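Colleagues,

Please find the record for the three-part complex below.
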Amino acid sequence: MDVSSITQNLNSDYVSKITNAMKAATATESTATESTGKFDSVYNSAMGLINDTNSSIQAAQKAEVDFSLGNMTNTSELSVLQQKANLSLQYTVAIRDKVLEAYKEIMNMQM
Amino acid sequence: MFSSGAFGYIDVLNSATNSSWLRNEVISSNIANVDTPNYKRKDVSFATYLNSALGGTDNTTSTLTQRVKSVDLSNVNSNVYTDNSNLSYRSDGNNVDIETENVELASNQIMYNALIDSMSNEFSRMKSVLN
Amino acid sequence: MALFSQFNISASGMTAQRLRTDVISQNIANVNTTRTADGTPYVRKQVVLTEKGSDSSFSSVFAAAQSGVAGNGVKVTSIQDDTTTAMSKVYDPSHPDADADGFVTYPNVNIIQEMTDLIDATRSYEANVTAFNAGKAMASKGLEVGK
């Protein structure tokens, strides 16, 4: 599984921190001989979530700059975009924590 | 993290907030001088400088982030200018319209509050990643 | 001090408008005063407002040239007699202040104009109060960044 192909288009700082954390945690997975099929699907769905989070954060940041320039004056839309970005980022961070926790537990079981 | 321009958006919002604060002072000065003879109203121009420094916002948001990180905000200054465009001077030479100033005051306050909320959201996003 | 200059600007506006209201009230109270302390009829008074200039210290002039300076507010430079409006003369020989021709000189105070000025001064005062409250709310809101 090639994480770099997914992350090469991501340039939001928050999301890159998360993906780096996931990459570091799963760097040793390629050397494991046991098949980790179910864990694989969980990981893929988490990475799909990261793309959605990235696009919502970028939409919120573009709205911020537009508001500063005076191009956008709808304050409720600005707030909605901010809240969407915040919630999706918090959800992604929670998923990251759970994935890492599950991975550590799995690694501890292979003794 | 800090050298890669992670605070780029916050710096842009901060300069917009500073300009909004200065505009509040200028509008208050206009309101205080509504009856002063020969006083011309002042205003603050900021959006054009920031727009030219950023090169505008377009649909390719990936390049917007790069532009925000590399923008040089030291050249983007708020400029207080004297507004002589209102030709309907009163007999005492004063061109301040109190209704316009009140409207500008209210809208400027809302813009300031929205920018402050955006900055708080940026900071909270950074904090949530750091846990 | 530049820390809360916005409050000083609005406060100077409120002071100037309040002083203007006092002068207008005095004009209205003396609308029929034909003899003041020095024996002449009451002359309508009006305030002269000027923009407060910054003090001439080098630091303030340098700062003003460097970046935009919002201003320092308004002040009342003087309270002057209105000598351009003509006094009104009424023929009344029985009045104790009538002159040799029987004309009494009344003050040049026009009640309608004074009431209009009073409304204008009140509205300007309220606008200054609104500006002050807006500045205070913005300053408090600015402290909430990151909370």
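Chain A has one domain: 3-109.

Comments are welcome before we finalize the supplementary table.
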